[in-house]
Amino acid sequence: MALIDRLKHFLAEQRIEYDVLPHREVFTSQEVAATSHVTGRQLAKVILVRVDGQGHLMVVLPASCRLDLTALRAVTGQRKLGLAPEDEIARVFPDCEVGAMPPFGHLYNLPVYADVCFPREKEFFFQAGNHHEVVRISYEQFQRLAKPVVGEFCTHAREKALSA
Questions:
Q1: Which positions ≥6 away from 92 have C-beta within 8 Å?
Q2: Using CB atoms within 10 A of its CB, is residue 92 exposed (0-12), middle (13-18) or buried (19+)?
Q3: SS3 of residue 103 by DSSP
Q4: What pLDDT, on the 0 to 100 scale, is given for residue 100?
Q5: Residue 45: which of 121, 144, 153 has the closest Cα?
Q6: Which of 46, 53, 87, 148 could disulfide-pair with 101, CB 3.0 to 4.6 Å?
Q7: SS3 of 102, please?
Q8: pLDDT digits over 73-116, tens only?
């Protein structure tokens, strides 16, 4: 079963209102946000992080943010964290195009860590396992389904520019 079909089944089973929105094929999270006409703060970017000797965890950030590994180490209590390479991502998410993973770790037996800076009252968008569709749900629904550990571990591009 294709991931989009699994997602639709999962969301329907959980009685979640959602929309699948097609867009032109793009590959970076900022391009996905732009072509989908949503802000980078509302679009989730999923990052696979390797926990040395203990598997992986899923990190969900707004597309407009970058991961601060030092802050993530503090939130997780793990000292040895690193970004997973593309070949590893492909193995962990065999039904997704690399870089288009949905933010539901339980579909892959992964714990989920979501950054606190998502706008809580807004819609929440994420890639549907491919580079040409996004799914729209509420942030509240995402939080209820994914049950993420919420913490501060992103840096904002503007903050970085101001501190330079």
A1: 48, 56, 84, 108, 110
A2: middle
A3: coil
A4: 95
A5: 153
A6: 46
A7: coil
A8: 999 999 999 999 999 999 999 999 999 999 999 999 999 999 99
Question: What DSSP element (H or E) covers 11?
Answer: helix 3-13
Q: Kindly tell me the sign of the dihedral angle through the C-alpha atoms of 55, 57, 58, 60.
A: negative
Q: What is the DSSP letter of 108?
A: G
* Per-residue tokens: 74: 């503090």
Can you name the CATH fold of 17-163?
Answer: YbaK protein (3.90.960)
Quick one: which of 124, 101, 114, 98 has its CA closest to 38? 124
CA angle in degrees (0–180, nearest 5) for 56-122-98: 35
Question: What would the DSSP string read from start to end of 126-143?
Answer: EE-SSSSEEEEEEHHHHH
Whole-model pTM: value is: 0.91
